[in-house]
């Protein structure tokens, strides 16, 4: 049997997946890739083959993909330019004989009328993989519960208010840990070829309902202010966020665009995240964490 390759293994999702795979696989059956393989030293010391892979340098990818049978392609961070990066990785993998590509995508990425612009990159990548000749599995994650527990809860507690354009739209918030465990399951089990899995937590909640749990846990009231999309753009403008993906400064203070955030909120408002599935439990054997459980794990980071 060939090896399992993990791209972006020095990132947070990739590192967690790498550790999960080491609980199920021998180190010599794994290959971890990174643009900065020095960051993979902990894995190299365990006997894992750690290789340099730069998705912007197709020539570097040929040797990086050698000997692989399955690959986890973790979507890169560069919204708007990452489809070309993903294409380079897929083409190199298939050329080297990789037979199954697992991709971290977005819930309802295949719905053409889903307004979230982030879905464009994900669906384009899914189509590249489907056309590649390799078997595929799309892990279509819902919104990460950890993002609500940190990037949303912390400033909301500091300010006491949260402008929001999601309306009453509900989200099946999913723990990133559960998405990682599902990826490990798909990479180490049989029977997942040519399937797409929507990965969610155990319940669907609106943003006001989510922040009400924060208030309940802290005693600090948070006023959710419903705003329209234009007011949401103005809020992000005031934060200094770039409007478009093309305006993002590499390694800059804000690695996302307001286009991305505002259309994501619109997608929630229009019901594209209002879904609860049991794929996490079916694939991992464990029920997914609730949003409250993820909040409890991050509460030590909240302002006192």
From TrEMBL:
Span of domain NAD(P)-binding: 8-152
Domain of life according to the entry: Bacteria
Coiled coil residues, start to end: none
InterPro entries linked to this entry: NAD(P)-bd_dom, NAD(P)-bd_dom_sf, NmrA-type_oxidoreductase
UniProt xrefs under CDD domains: TMR_SDR_a
PANTHER family according to UniProt: NMRA-LIKE DOMAIN-CONTAINING PROTEIN (PTHR47129:SF1), QUINONE OXIDOREDUCTASE 2 (PTHR47129)
Protein name: NAD(P)H-binding protein
């Amino acid at each position: 049997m060939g090896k399992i390759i993990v791209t972006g293994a020095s990132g947070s999702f990739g590192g967690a997946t790498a550790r999960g795979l080491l609980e199920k696989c021998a180190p010599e059956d794994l290959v971890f890739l990174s643009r900065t393989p020095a960051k993979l030293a902990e894995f190299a010391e365990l006997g894992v083959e750690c290789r340099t892979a730069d998705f912007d340098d197709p020539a570097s990818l040929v040797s990086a993909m050698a000997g692989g049978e399955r690959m986890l392609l973790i979507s890169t961070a560069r919204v708007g330019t990452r489809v070309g990066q993903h294409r380079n990785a897929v083409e190199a993998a298939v050329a080297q004989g990789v037979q199954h590509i697992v991709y971290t995508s977005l819930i309802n990425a295949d719905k053409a009328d889903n307004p979230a612009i982030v879905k464009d990159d994900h669906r384009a990548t899914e189509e590249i993989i489907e056309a590649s000749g390799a078997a595929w599995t799309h892990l279509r994650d819902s919104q990460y519960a950890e993002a609500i527990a940190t990037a949303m809860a912390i400033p909301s507690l500091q300010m006491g208010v949260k402008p929001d354009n999601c309306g009453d739209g509900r989200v099946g918030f999913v723990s990133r840990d559960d998405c990682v465990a599902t990826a490990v399951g798909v990479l180490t089990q049989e029977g997942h070829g040519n399937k797409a899995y929507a990965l969610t937590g155990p319940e669907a909640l609106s943003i006001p309902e989510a922040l009400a749990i924060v208030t309940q846990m802290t005693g600090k009231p948070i006023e959710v202010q419903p705003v329209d999309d234009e007011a949401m753009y103005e809020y992000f403008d005031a934060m200094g966020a770039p409007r478009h993906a093309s305006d993002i400064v590499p390694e800059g203070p804000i690695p996302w665009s307001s286009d991305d955030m505002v259309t994501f909120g619109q997608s929630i408002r229009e019901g594209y995240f209002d879904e609860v599935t049991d794929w996490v439990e079916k694939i991992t054997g464990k029920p997914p964490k609730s949003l409250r459980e993820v909040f409890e794990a991050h509460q030590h980071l909240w302002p006192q």
